[in-house]
Amino acid sequence: MKKESDLDGNPISICLANASEPNTGPDASGSIQLPSTNPATSTMAMKITTGTSELRDITKMERIGVHSHIRGLGLDERLEPRETSQGLVGQAKARKAAGMILKMVQEGRIAGRAMLFAGPPSTGKTAIAMGMAQSLGPDVPFTIITASEVFSLSMSKTEALTQAFRRSIGVRIKEESEIIEGEVVEIQIDRSLTGHDLAAVSLHRAIIDVNYATKTGKLTIKTTDMETIYDLGTKMIDALTKEKVLAGDVILIDKTSGKITKLGRSFARSRDYDAMGADTKFVATPEGEIQKRKEVVHTVSLHEIDVINSRTQGFLALFAGDTGEIKPELRNQINGKVGEWREEGKAEIVPGVLFIDEVHMLDVECFSFLNRALEQDLAPLVIMASNRGMARIRGTKFRSPHGLPVDLLDRVLIVSTRPYVDEEIRQIISIRCQEEDVQLTPEATDVLTSMALQTTLRYALNLISCAQVCAKKRKAEEVDVEDLKRAYTYFMDEKRSVQWLKEQQGVLMFDEMDAMEVFCH
């Protein structure tokens, strides 16, 4: 057996240079603080009926959104759109165009470009953008904003757009870290350094909470080829106690940060207990050396690096959202440091996607900023959506196609979307019913499809859950035409609302004839 060095770890921030506290901007050595990238675990719920063989499926604790049924763009290997796939229906040309852009983004061959989805309302512009986000996966940054979010009292319009741009650019940083991986043989706490003698306590059977401030101990860990004893300090003993590590557990220790990860129980200890919890996982004892070097890849956005270095305790602003204005000088320093990392091979740029919905709500100053921002070296792919035809450019008296200036339209690739036909609407209704767990009769599906053609698709989809409530009141499992008619009488669509306003003319407060005529027109 060989004896290794002290293992008392002090957790630090993830960075290329050692640092324990976030500072204001890059320090004297040129190191830049990076945020921790621990993946958030999704909440799951499982219900098991004891005494019977019934086992219910795992249910996600997520609310059903407007686009929660979309899983991707629904393209095959040749980027040809399928009729119905991954929650998207129709819009073959627009989906294929989005797939071509998506392919170039994944290969890292395109950045600093702009793309505009133009079409009438309820034609799937936002849905295609959500499909692109799902297809890119979690490694490629995808930021979605609405044009009205830019106008805020807390920061300027250009600062909000700059933060959105830098939130859409990722930095993939590679670093090697030393890890210790093996099966725990024994954990011993010898005595306290404060003078209180403690009997050597083995944690084979239980974890003992020692109330003294300073503790020392030993950790015996092994693989199939070797066994090693490590000296433990107070922090490592507390970390082992917090993770409830027992003899027989297979653990992984990051020597740089002192983080302990419990991988599971060893197969050799599978017969130690007669009954175990459902979360108990058995793994094989690791092979080879106990101490290894492992390459760790962190993907963070430029905006996160900006916030971390913008102020003392800047990492707290990532969770609070109160980032405020960030100085351009700091961003220039970070850009220079990231450029050095790229030249040294320590990092690579991941150009992401920025989606701006309702882009016609931006004003002429924002459009001027976009013209310049798209030409910068660190620029993501910008996707915009607009349902306007010939509209006035906000902040001016001039009218332009889609409400965008001509010089910006010259820089974008325009993709048009068309209204859905009845068969496509029927398939969309069927997909939404599956997502909301609602059963429609064939007659109700036909009626709802005709409603969508006469009114709007959004109105018809909103009636599904309302009609389900009516069906539950009469204790029916399927939604019938009667339930749809009842919901239709309760909630008006846009056309019936206009007709009702005409009938109530002169009764409502602040009713003006000219405004009503413009609205009806």
From TrEMBL:
It is found in: Nucleus. GO terms for cellular component: Ino80 complex; Swr1 complex. It comes from Ephemerocybe angulata. Belongs to the RuvB family. Residues 1-41 are annotated as: Disordered. This is RuvB-like helicase. It catalyses: ATP + H2O = ADP + phosphate + H(+). The keyword Transcription applies. DNA helicase participates in several chromatin remodeling complexes, including the SWR1 and the INO80 complexes. Residues 30-41 have a biased composition (Polar residues). InterPro entries: AAA+_ATPase, P-loop_NTPase, RuvB-like, RuvB-like_C, RuvBL1/2_DNA/RNA_bd_dom, TIP49_P-loop. May form heterododecamers with RVB1. Component of the SWR1 chromatin remodeling complex, the INO80 chromatin remodeling complex, and of the R2TP complex. It comes from the Eukaryota.
